[in-house]
Amino acid sequence: MTLIVQKYGGSSLANAERIRNVAQRIAKTRAQGNRIVAVCSAMGDTTDELMELANQVSSRPEGREMDALLATGEVVSCALVSLALNALPCPAVSLTGQQAGIRAGGFHGKGLIASIEPDRVLHELAADRVVIVAGFQGVSEGMDVMTLGRGGSDVTAVALAAALKADRCEIYTDVQGIYTADPRVVPEARKLDEIDYEEMLELAAHGAKMQPRSIELAEIYNVPILVASSFEDTPGTLIHREVSMEVRERVRGVTYDLNVAKISVLGVPDRPGIAATIFEPLAAGGVSVDTIVQNASVDRLTDLSFTVARTDLRHALEVVRPVAEQIHARGVNHNDKLGNVSIVGTGMQFAPGYAARMFRVLAEANINIEMITTSEIRITCIVNQEQVHEAVRVLHRAFRLDVGASS
Ligand code: ASP
Ligand code: MG
Questions:
Q1: Strands, E, within 345-404: which ranges?
Q2: Does ligand 1 have an atom closer than 6 angstroms to the CB of 136?
Q3: Candidates 136, 145, 311: which one to mutate for ligand 1, based on the most atoms within 8 Å of Cβ?
Q4: Is 256 strand, coil or helix?
Q5: Angle of helix 197-205 relative to helix 212-221, nearest 10 degrees?
Q6: What span, in angstroms and rounded, lies between the C-alpha atoms of 376 and 259?
Q7: Residues facing 92 on adjacent strands
Q8: Does 151 contact ligand 1 (Cβ within 6 A)?
């Protein structure tokens, strides 16, 4: 029998009617002779609402209690999906992350799955029940609830698919799949039929709405993922290793992120060990740093700029300011009105000229570039936040993603 791990996102579970719809879909797939594990996110905007509530009762909510709070959102939706299934009737059981054997380590709010002991899940499947697992959570060695970071249910789904050696992993959401750009910004954006892990990882890490760690995991364990709509029966996008050769030679997508802030440490002495002195405490504090630029030094002094998620800015500044003083830097400034735009495609790897074209297109749209970073298959420009959407549109057009032609 085929074992399928499905994941349903918050918008697919936003109210009772949608939960019944999800239950119907699960029951239908089971009736076709499949065994199913369904990972659920919290209903609608529950996670944001719980965070907001926490901020109303505490100005510094601590990680352990935040995790205890946020994990309840997924527990609620799982119990409701299981109730809806049983009512059909379709035999189902809901499990929390802990009950599903998901062990997690790392920082509260940013937990990492350490291992999965799926005995209970396997036992329930053997008893012919659909197993509904709470996404976004695991339990630490000390038996505390750990959440896995925003969008963490994607990680839960892929990790379970790997641990259970599932035949398929299907991620159901409110859009039809992965697009060449965000369709809300670029109406001509096209849905991709397939994409490889590398490209998807770059898209996800730079704005596309999937948790990037889930793509990393999928690549390591070679789990193909189908991303599709939970509202319509359309084919979706297959994320996998092999993508037909013909579609490789071009830019595959344009992504953006509005959640970017830049910190500059000015007048830093240019000597060995300084970068480590600045970035080590940030890493220890769990702040991930994205783009880093160090200027050429003048009189043995240099400026060091880097970007962080805007949501991490306050914390990052608290860490960086004392360090800057300690190394006698001239000062620290920041800009929280930035965003980034990226073009992604494995086809860029061996073809020159993509960066130049990207810069020209942005220049013609009068968009100033603050910082630039690249990987082998991605070029990212940091620009003013209010110009990000326009940047996405002009790049999508310039690289002819709307017509799907080779560029
Ligand atoms: N509910 C969590 C969030 O909104 C986890 C998830 O949806 O995957 O980030
Ligand atoms: Mg959510």
A1: 369-375, 378-384
A2: yes
A3: 136
A4: strand
A5: 160
A6: 23
A7: 130
A8: yes
Distance 28 CA to ligand 1 centre (A): 25
The 112-116 sheet, strands edge to edge: 112-116, 102-105, 137-139, 145-147
Query: Which residues, in sequence order, are bridge partners of residue 384?
Result: 338
**Cα-based distances in Å from 51 to 59, 68, 70, 185:** 11, 11, 7, 27
Say yes or no: CB of residue 135 within 6 Å of ligand 1.
yes
**Which sign does the torsion angle of CA 27, 29, 33, 37 carry?**
negative
Q: From the CB of residue 306, how many other CB atoms can be counted at a distance below 10 Å? A: 23
Q: Which of 90, 157, 97 is nearest to 129 (CA)?
A: 90
Nearest Cα to Cα of residue 136 among 112, 170, 162: 112
β-strand pairing of 2-8 with 168-173: parallel
**All domains of the chain in start order, with CATH:** 3-174 (3.40.1160.10), 264-334 (3.30.2130.10)
Tokens of 41: 């996110």
**Tokens in use for 247?**
């579609």
Instruction: Determine the Cα–Cα distance for residues 245 and 252; give it in Å rounded to an integer.
Output: 13
> Ligand 2 centre and the CA of 42: distance in Å?
6
Amino acid at 381: C
Least distant ligand from the CA of 109: 1
The answer to whether 108 and 66 are in contact (CB under 8 A) is yes
**Average pLDDT per run of 10 along the chain, which is 407 residues long?**
96 97 97 97 98 96 97 98 98 98 95 97 98 98 97 98 96 92 92 92 83 95 95 92 66 93 94 91 90 86 93 93 94 96 87 90 96 91 97 95 67
Residue whose CA lies nearest to ligand 1 atom number 6: 151
What lies within 8 Å, CB to CB, of 98 at 6+ separation is 137, 138, 139, 143, 145
